[in-house]
Write a structure and sequence with these properties.
Strand content: 25-35%
Family: Belongs to the FAD-dependent oxidoreductase family.
Shape: globular
Pfam families: MDHAR3-like_C, Pyr_redox_2
Number of strands: 26
Number of domains: 3
Cofactor: FAD
GO molecular function: monodehydroascorbate reductase (NADH) activity
CATH superfamily of the largest domain: FAD/NAD(P)-binding domain
Number of helices: 9
Radius of gyration: 23 Å
CATH architecture of the largest domain: 3-Layer(bba) Sandwich
Keywords: FAD, Flavoprotein, NAD, NADP, Oxidoreductase, Redox-active center
Length: 434
Amino acid sequence: MAEKHFKYVIIGGGVAAGYAAREFAKHGLNPGELAIISKEAVAPYERPALSKGYLFPQGAARLPGFHVCVGSGGERLLPEWYSENGIELILSTEIVKADLASKTLTSAAGATFTYDILIIATGSTVINLSDFGTPGANANNIFYLREIDDADKLVAAIETKKNGKVVIVGGGYIGLELSAVMKMNNFDVTMVYPEPWCMPRLFTSDIAAFYEGYYANNGVKIDKGTLVVGFDSDANGDVTSVKLKDGRVLEADIVVVGVGGRPLTKLFKAQVEEEKGGIKTDGFFQTSVPGVYAVGDVATFPMKLYNDIRRVEHVDHARKSAEQAVKAIKASEEGKVIDEYDYLPYFYSRSFDLSWQFYGDNVGETVMFGDNDPASAKPKFGSYWIKDGKLLGAFLEGGSPDENKTISKLARLQPQVTDLEQLAKEGLSFASKI
């Protein structure tokens, strides 16, 4: 099989790849200089749509509607956009070997690709319960949600198992968003997670209490503080029930598992420096190997704002890190200098009629404000995180675009706070004074 050479190769075809391609095109590309190699069969798309709009009972999102870069308000990059810009989109191609010393990538089919500059944008893979040897975890109708193929299988099961029972395993993003959308599809929904409250990596117990209450009011049953230890299936191999550690058994026609992900770094093991589970980069996303960059979920990078090194799994960082890497590559070629990445952590979610945004760092004491009654017609509340007299993090449920912008500014500026009681009274109005 003939070897193909490109000046730039992006390995991975997710959100980061699409945003990197757009940035390359902005700077000007010669035809055939850039290739994106993806194991998925479709051009890069906005992955968050899969756990949100894709599963809606009415008006569901479908491609080409959510190709990148529509998620951040940009132009949609349809498959033909890549060829119009001289970019080779190599789809349904899984790279199984990467030799960074010889700058060579090898696909499962034996094709080889060489490059001058590589951007690693492989993202994450879901953690599968069969990895832990959970009995029955390979039964039919147990789903994970990462790629469009996964979503299509779940859509088919929703149709087949109409109005049935679904058990959602996990209380993070996927758990909360999928529980809401399965309820909208008229399923009997139970969420199961081992932690004492939902979204424990970000939510305080007070914030979580609102969402658990709201979900309960919308008919979602929640079993927290217990583990799934196995599954039963029928003669066809279809899942029928979920076994819990506390001895209970939940009936299930469909199970959706969302218990986290792992960055896909194994192709590069022992070839690049790693830290905190990811590939270590500088503030331009260059790795320890010159000419090799890593972006998105796989990158452990300097978080300038907190003088720390972190890895961030979120679509916002995937977009921005990809753009930063390309700017750095082009600046280096032109003998120019750009600023180091200066990222403000940002997370968000939408489910039912709810919508929250969080900016900054969730460390220190917390101050809640606003109406966090799950029974309110239009709940609107927030929380600030204060450490060493500085406001470091801000969370807001039900905020307007302007209000969300204001709390992001707060988290970036880190104002001094001396009186927590006064801050609780002022709530959102505190932000307007800064």
